[in-house]
From TrEMBL:
GO cellular component term of the entry, any: plasma membrane
Membrane topology note: Multi-pass membrane protein
Organism: Ketogulonicigenium vulgare (strain WSH-001)
HAMAP family: YciB (MF_00189)
Function: Plays a role in cell envelope biogenesis, maintenance of cell envelope integrity and membrane homeostasis.
Keyword list, A-Z: Cell inner membrane, Cell membrane, Membrane, Transmembrane, Transmembrane helix
Name of the protein this chain belongs to: Inner membrane-spanning protein YciB
């Protein structure tokens, strides 16, 4: 006889634990970088800077955080998977070529790809952002198109800003800005968007 009893709902993830899993790898990278930024490590006869070693150690910490998140929720967003792939790919290039520029350019390329993908959708009269986020945030199609256009420009601007930041400022300044400044800019931008786009949200969502 087949058991048709409904499975118990999965317990929602504790918000504090979620923040630890989301922000933990970034905080780890920043702390480790400032601890070893002036050190030189010799591995296999090759010298590696503290920046490169911090970038390499960031990868397993990020993967461990995602593994815990998956084990607890059985959910990982497409953006998280894409970001993890880019971190692994450019982290590997950074270590292989012993060149920290690969890790710094990663942020520009991620933002640039987001801008290009959203732009391609706009040229086709579609919002790829709606395809990714519509289940989590119901909104009228007109609102999704407005948000997509604005995010496309925002991501393009962030890519340019990251290039200027790592090329013109010190490593320490870039680490702080990339780790905390850019996320704060993103948060502020999205807060403004969802406030200004409230008329396109259902009444309960707008409230």
């Amino acid at each position: 006889m087949t058991d048709t009893a409904p499975k118990p709902a999965r317990k929602p993830l504790n918000p504090i634990l979620k923040q630890v899993l989301d922000l933990g790898p970034t905080v780890f990278f920043v702390v480790l970088y400032f601890l070893i930024k002036d050190d030189v490590f010799v591995i296999g006869g090759t010298e590696y800077s503290g920046f490169i070693m911090a970038s390499v150690f960031f990868i397993p910490v990020l993967l461990a955080s995602m593994a815990v998140l998956w084990a607890l929720t059985r959910q990982i967003s497409r953006i998280q998977v894409f970001t993890a792939f880019m971190v692994i790919f450019f982290g590997a290039l950074t270590a292989w070529f012993n060149d920290e520029r690969f890790f710094k350019m990663k942020t520009s390329i991620v933002y640039g790809l987001f801008a290009v993908l959203l732009g391609i959708g706009l040229l086709r009269g579609r919002s790829y952002l709606q395809w990714v986020m519509s289940d989590a945030l119901p909104m009228a199609p007109e609102g999704w198109m407005i948000l997509t256009r604005r995010l496309c420009l925002f991501f393009a601007g962030m890519a340019v800003l990251n290039e200027l930041t790592w090329r013109l400022l010190s490593d320490s300044a870039w680490v702080m800005i990339e780790s905390f400044g850019f996320p704060l800019l993103m948060f502020g931008f999205l807060f403004w968007q969802f406030t200004s786009l409230a008329p396109y949200l259902p009444d309960d969502e707008a409230k």
